[in-house]
Amino acid sequence: KPKQQVLSRFFSPK
Amino acid sequence: ILELRLVQATLFKNVLEAISDLFSKANFDFSGTGLELQAMDTSHVALVALLLRAEAFNHYLCDRDLSMGLNLADMAKAFRCANNDDIITIKAEEDWSDTVTFTFESPEDGEISIFDFDFVGTNGVPLEIPEFPESEYQAKVRMPSAKFMRICKKLSSFGDSGDRDTVVIISVDKECVNFFTRGKTGTSTIVCRQTQTVDKPKEPTLIEMKEQVSLAFDLRYMNSFSKGSTLSDQVTISLSSNLPAVFEYKIAETGYIRYYMLPRIEE
Question: Is omega for the bond preceding B126 within 30 degrees of 0, making it cis?
């Protein structure tokens, strides 16, 4: 099955 | 001091129903503008961002920004006890005692229920959420939110392992959006054509395509996102192979709920 990517690289802490 | 009032509990009940199965904790940011809520699931696959502008409330007083983490499961339980037409008051006192009070008042019999929630740590939210440039999205699909929910349900009933780990491929080609999944002994495809707005002006399916796109998503998450349908008649899905997909429900004139998720990729 294709691997799920995580969102971390698109959002940084405020 | 923070003091908010909503004369109908429905809006908040729907918000909690739309987020509490996927996200266990959320960060609530209250400011003069309104309420901004953010939550990330524990595996960092999905992010939800909600905005309810001050105008969404019947009374809104917030003279100092306040950010609080709250447990959504506890809140959802409390809100299930509230009737749709209960009046909700949300209050936090001046001394910032690390609790917030939600009061439900029945306009009929005057019964009042009071819930105090302690602040909790959150999964790394709040985050800075940029507005991704429109031009970076290969396709945008707008459809009735009930239709999107129905599609997710149909695909779930066919998918090879129920809701768990089933992958849906969304592909946009000219005036069609296809939802494809594989079952135990076959495949299932749901094709949605762009509808002529003159026939059903209130519930159009609109497709804007810059280039063909085909992306794989986890159906379990999509199913959860589709619960946003109680907040809006329409959902807009923005698709890109390089950016998080956005599933957006506009809440009347007063805000939105946006779910972000990246597609799955071949290793």
Answer: yes
Strands B66-71 and B25-30: antiparallel
Whether residues A5 and B263 touch (CB distance < 8 A) is answered with: yes
- Give the separation between CA B178 and CA B201, rounded to whole angstroms: 22
The SS3 call for residue B93 is coil
Q: Is B94 on the interface with A (CB under 8 A)?
A: no
From residue B133, give the alpha-carbon distance in Å to each of B41, B123, B203, B212, B242. Answer: 25, 26, 26, 18, 12
Tokens 């939800």 locate to B48
List pLDDT tens digits, range B152-195: 999 998 876 555 688 999 999 988 999 999 888 889 999 999 98
User: DSSP for B45-81?
Assistant: SEEEEEEEEGGGSSEEEESS-EEEEEEHHHHHHHHHT
pLDDT in tens, B3-52: 999 999 999 999 999 999 999 999 999 999 999 999 999 999 999 999 99
Residues of B (198-257) whose Cβ lies below 8 Å from A: 216, 218, 243-244
Which residues on B lie below 8 Å from A9 (Cβ)? none
CB-based contact B37:B49 (threshold 8 Å): yes
How far apart, in whole angstroms, are the C-alpha atoms of residue B64 and residue B41? 28
Facing residue for B265 by CB, picked from A5, A8, A10: A5
Using CA atoms, how far residue B150 sits from B9, B75, B144, B223, B229, in Å, is 26, 27, 10, 9, 10
Choose among B19, B224, B251, B12: nearest CA to B115: B12
d(CA A11, CA B92): 29
Residues in chain B: 267
- Determine contact, residues B112/B36, Cβ cutoff 8 Å: no
